[in-house]
């Protein structure tokens, strides 16, 4: 019996897709979904982990503004490049499928306009990208 892990893939183009990853090959499945050789984990609130391309910045991957906004909204002000995959993590550090509540939190976070405090944090994090900062100041 194959155990699947419900995840959400967040592309830089604002495309959000729910996928089932194979628990037996989770590392390979995440790397394939992200399109990278090495990935890193960004721990967010509510036991949500965001897997991202560890070399996204240096390999020319596109800025992932939706994942960057999500990370800021869920307590981790970081800038993300390339595709990201969101999953749930247990207290023991095991990667498991997102719950309905976590999936809803991700979808709601990505659908809302960031509050002023989040926009300020985004402006600071994205200061090396003046075009993006200009867009954020206009929302």
TrEMBL record:
Q: Which domain of life is it from?
A: Bacteria
Which Pfam families is this protein grouped with? Answer: DUF3846
The DUF3846 domain is annotated at 9-110
For this entry, the protein name equals DUF3846 domain-containing protein
Species of the source: Cryobacterium melibiosiphilum
